[in-house]
Amino acid sequence: MFLRAADEALPPQPRAAAAMEEMEEELKCPVCGSFYREPIILPCSHNICLACARNILVQTPEAESPQSSRASGSAVSDYDYLDLDKMSLYSESDSGYGSYGGFVSAPTTPCQKSPNGVRVFPPTVPQPAPQQHLLLPHPASLPPIPRNSCITCPQCHRSLILDDRGLRGFPKNRVLEGVVDRYQQSKAAALKCQLCEKSPKEATAMCEQCDVFYCDPCRLRCHPPRGPLAKHRLVPPAQGRISRRASPRKISTCTEHELENLSMYCVQCKMPVCYQCLEEGKHGTHEVKALGAMWKLHKGQLSQALNGLSDRATEAKEFLVQLRNMVQHIQENGVEFEACLVAQCDALIDALNRRKAQLLAQVTKEHEHKLKVVRDQISHCTVKLRQTTGLMEYCLEVIKENDPSGFLQISDALIRRVHMTESQWGKGTLTPRMTSDFDLTLDSGPLLQTIHQLDFVQMKVPAAPMLQLEECCTQNNSATLSWKQPPLSTIAVEGYILELDDGNGGPFREVYVGPETICTVDGLHFNSTYKSRVKAFNASGVGQYSKTLIMQTSEAGVPPCDIQSIGTVAWFTFDPASAHPDIVFSNDNLTVSCSSYDDRVVMGSAAFSRGVHYWEMTVDRYDNHPDPAFGVARGDVLKDVMLGKDDKAWAMYVDNNRSWFMHNNSHTNRTDGGITKGSTIGVLLDFSRGLLIFLINDEQQGPVAFESLEGTYYPAISLNRNVQVTLHTGLPIPDFYTPGEADPTSSVC
């Protein structure tokens, strides 16, 4: 939707049919549910048909409506709103019936409801004859408004008492009436093409300049989109009819002085007034402005408000599309998930059936083993019983013999055989070798418990985290990033992986892995642009990356001097973590001293690899003429010797009379001029030219100390117990020095 400036008329803009239908609800009375007819504006800014307003009037007792408190119909402040509960007109929790004591109409009847659900009151005007139901009764034919009448807004339920003018005291909403009229005209029969010779077709466009309705064939034939006609504006037929039938601006008259036109606007009362209203003094002391100017001003304000509302409507439409897509995705994912669940349960059932078959095979094996053992024992016992029975029968027959000598010849052998056979039936022989019970018990308890505990677990990777931009920031060469999971995400997260590039468009590298949602990365390059991103992980895997955040470390500044020089302003302190244990810190790690007579090294908390940097140190204490050293160093510099003794440091050491530059224990460029208590030592590091320069009390000390410096360096000093220094950072580069000039020594002030 495009809205023009406030000082221009606002022609109707193209609208879709659906949007026009949605506007229809704004054009219907909350009482009768039909389009507004002669709408009036209540002090609460709601509208109502004039006839409907008569229908919902209620007469109040004289005691509750003193003459001094009656409404004038001119402004909200002129009305006395009544407490709806005290008036006892109706209750929102009643059964739908109301008692209207003193009401003009017939006895109490049930309340009605309009199509938009607003409670309305029964009509008070008698129904017209059937043949006249389309005509509104003339105002003179309506019954007079009774004294002490009260009207309640059907939308906000505010009640107010009418004055002697009754409903005539309310202003008519001519704008709404005009909109309703144009809308009803636009809903009429379809427009026809004006150029079709026989049986005109339905028009599809109207040219605002030609004022002609065209169908598609006639438009292509008679109004081609080229040449002079290319600049003509074609609009939908409905909009063209509205534009054609739009009536000229109507001149409104004052409700209190019907012969006077409204020409001014009272800012305090927020209503149009006439010249006579100002003359009579009612609005004489109020601030008034020209009606046309306020008309244009309020149109502009409405246009601006509509712009914001249009943005919200666009966002709402996009959100509805997103929700509809979610519905489709939910349905698709639901079907897929149900199929996956059925497959998983079927797999469990198959596994249980396979285990069932294995257990049944084990039971069958045990069953067959028991039967075999018992059957073998039966067979063995049967054979032995047959032998025993045969021996017994034989012995009985031998006993029957009467030959003593013959009996004695075999009796000893038979007695031995009987005893031997009896011993073979000894203990355990007549005991079953196998029980009939199965000593197998199925341990199904854990499985049943597992089945009861069978539930859904989180098996998805986490969603992409959201970077909280309001909490992400950079300071010096450090970057702080904060993130969180999406609001609607219910996926468990075990930790996060934060990645940064090298500040020069290189590949990403991991700088943090852990459960925290905020991380500060130190030791970055100054004056560099870093890209950062984060992703979450859990037992199922690693999720997607967040959106990439681009951050700038230590923006470049321009120092106040005639020659433009660019440097990086950085703030840092001395670093206790990397210092020798004998170093003593104070003043928030900006001041250091030493507890040893030997030289000890302490470095700064920031590392430099690009740009131009400058910092200073002031000598707070200087006893017995020691030789403190100032400069830069690598991260693995020796901490128990003077700075510059090894190949990891580039320094200037100085006493009370002179100074030397030192690197890898090589002393060069002896220069007169030393330090005392209160002296200031400056260090200028220029990576654009690879130079290191020293200053004492704002003047360059000697020539350029070191050249061809590349890589990463930390500010560093070495000192013993006779020296105490304080660090000063965040300083611009000195005025005399301009990066890139041919000879920096010639710029000494």
Shape: flat
* Structural class assignment: alpha+beta
Task: Identify the strand order in the major beta sheet.
Answer: 26-27-38-29-34-35-36
CATH H level of the largest domain: which superfamily? Answer: SPRY domain
The amount of beta strand, in percent, is 15-25%
Number of helices: 10
CATH topology of the largest domain, anyone? Jelly Rolls
Largest sheet: 7 strands, antiparallel
Helix content: 25-40%
Give average pLDDT, whole number.
Answer: 79
Give the distance, in angstroms, between the N- and C-terminal Cα atoms: 64 Å
Radius of gyration: 52 Å
Quaternary structure of the protein: single chain
Whole-number count of domains: 6
The low-confidence runs, each spanning 5 or more residues with pLDDT under 50, are: 1-16, 63-141, 556-568, 741-749
